[in-house]
Design brief:
With about 425 residues, this protein is of the alpha/beta class. It contains 16 helices and 13 strands. An eight-stranded mixed β-sheet has the order 8-9-7-10-6-11-12-13, with helices on both faces. Helix 12 links the parallel strand 11 and strand 12. The protein starts with 9 loop residues before the first strand and ends with a helix.
Length: about 425
């Protein structure tokens, strides 16, 4: 089930909002997902559209590198004010003369950067009540922004022991399936400081599996032996084949050599999943892009089967073919949870319209939309660390964490309901 995104009530305007990470944290704390971000040039275009009238305020963030563009920034402020929008100026290291010009352009409130504690919250309250620099007439207090909706609503059949199996399948190369599997596994393994579930990440891409690269773990020859003898192996032997990342996450890596995907069958895969399910609370299986005989095995065993895609024609065509293949075999397509990677965010109205058309044309629901994590995703992989360890404030990491929290809460509530 998909959740409707919160309406956009504010946006940041800056050269690069990632430069102002504290502002991102504060505006997310205030508005959840109900905000977008624009560059100065994008702002000029957007503020001339009717959708701009739906905004409550804009936060304009500048630093010393923006001083050569002060005329452009002033035009953005004047355009926002002409639309009746409140303007909060967030400034770092700008000269006194530039700051004076920006303040005189009509901004409603000013906050220095780095942001002092609660300063941005107080600024929002001031512009909402009209008690601001521009001394606008006092208006009735605006209602609080709607709380951010969870990225997904999970409907899964999880048993009373709070155990679950999640499959992750890419519907097209490069759609971030392994990135999702690795980072989701790490977030779930750290979801609760006191009582986090035990998590096992299994890489079943026998040819080009890269979870070991993502986590800087060696590939071991024993993996092939475990795959071959899974039906006769006990829990002790299975645990000995696992590697541990930072004492939190257990990993069953891909083999050290490239193996044919049919070297194992449904029986071996089922036995491997049974062992993992007995030993761990949560099992996440990173699948190969190729559909194989034992894809059905993992799909049937999974509580949720994540299918990653992107907003392009190849993903759309592959998704349609994948659905038809499952329907032909009468497999449980209701377990599929579609994850759109590099999804449009904020005020990208045309991109959001494309997402809607994609879902309608395929007759599916895009359950989770993940943003582009930019270069930091590849850099985290090269450093062999999850995003939570390498770039905690990365936008992709934050959304994967939200997904992990939703899954964990669903597991806990299901277990409580089962008694």
């Amino acid at each position: 089930m998909v959740s409707n995104p919160a309406p956009i009530v504010a946006c940041t305007i800056s050269r690069d909002v990632q430069t102002f990470d504290l502002l991102i944290d504060d505006i997310e704390a205030e508005l959840g997902e109900a905000w977008g971000d624009l560059s100065f040039m994008e702002a000029q275009s957007f503020l001339s559209q009717p959708e701009a009238n739906e905004l409550e305020f804009v936060a304009l963030a500048v630093d010393d590198e923006d001083e050569p563009d002060v005329e452009l920034i002033i035009r953005v402020i004047e355009q926002a004010k002409s639309n009746g929008l409140k303007v909060i100026l967030v400034a770092e290291d700008v000269s006194a003369s530039t700051l004076h010009r920006l303040l005189n352009a009509g901004v409603d409130d000013f906050v220095p950067y780095p942001l002092p504690e609660n300063a941005f919250h107080d600024s929002i309250e001031r512009v909402r009540t009209g008690n601001n620099l521009a001394e606008a007439p006092v208006a009735s207090t605006a209602p609080a922004a709607p709380a951010a909706l969870a990225p997904v609503t999970v409907q899964a059949t999880m048993d009373s022991k709070e155990r679950a199996i999640f499959g992750v399948q890419s519907l097209s190369g490069g759609t971030g399936a392994t990135t999702l599997a690795v980072n989701l596994a790490w977030e779930l393994a750290n979801i609760d400081k006191k009582t986090s579930p035990s998590v096992c990440l299994i890489d079943l891409d026998l040819q080009f599996g890269s979870t070991s690269t993502f986590l800087d773990l060696p590939r071991r020859d024993v993996i092939f032996e475990v795959l071959s003898d899974a039906q006769t192996m006990d829990e002790t032997a299975f645990r000995q084949a696992l590697l541990t990342f930072n004492d939190k996450l257990s990993v069953f890596t891909a083999p050290s050599e490239i193996l044919p995907l049919d070297i194992i069958g449904p029986e071996e895969v089922q036995a491997l999943l049974n062992l993992a399910h007995q030993c761990f609370d949560i099992v996440i299986v990173d699948m190969p892009t190729t559909i194989v005989q034992w894809t059905e095995t993992v799909l049937n065993a999974s509580d949720i089967y994540f299918a990653t895609l992107e907003l392009d024609m190849r993903s759309a065509q592959n998704t349609m073919r994948f659905i038809k293949a499952l329907q032909a075999e009468d497999l449980p397509i209701d377990k599929l949870h579609y994850v759109l990677n590099r999804a449009p965010r904020g005020l990208d109205m045309s991109g959001k319209a494309r997402v809607k058309r994609l879902a309608e044309s395929l007759n599916i629901e895009i359950n989770t939309q993940l943003p582009d994590g930019t270069k930091q995703v590849a850099q985290a992989c090269d450093h062999g660390a999850p995003l939570a360890e390498f770039a905690r404030k990365n936008v992709l990491r934050k959304d994967v964490l939200k997904l992990a929290k939703t899954l964990h809460e669903a597991m806990v509530s299901t277990a409580k309901a089962a008694g």
